[in-house]
Amino acid sequence: MSGKACTGACKSEPCQCGNNCQCGGDCDCSQCKTCKCTNEGCKCGQNCTGQATCSCEKSCSCK
């Protein structure tokens, strides 16, 4: 789990929190924050910070 650079584009839909990039293997895609969280109750373009954690953007609200 090192700081690997992401070389893939962000997945627009079905993206996993923590891995919002189309990179193979264990890639820490923390720079790609344009994907929507797949967590229930989270909408808009939140930043995925964990499997069960969603950080909302300014004009968004998570439940």
Automatic annotation (TrEMBL):
In terms of InterPro entries, this protein maps to: Metalthion_mollusc (IPR001008)
The alphabetical list of record keywords is: Cadmium, Metal-binding, Metal-thiolate cluster
Lineage top rank: taxon? Eukaryota
Among the GO molecular function terms of this UniProt record, one is: metal ion binding
Family according to the record? Belongs to the metallothionein superfamily. Type 2 family.
User: What protein name does the entry list?
Assistant: Metallothionein isoform 1
Organism annotation: Arion vulgaris
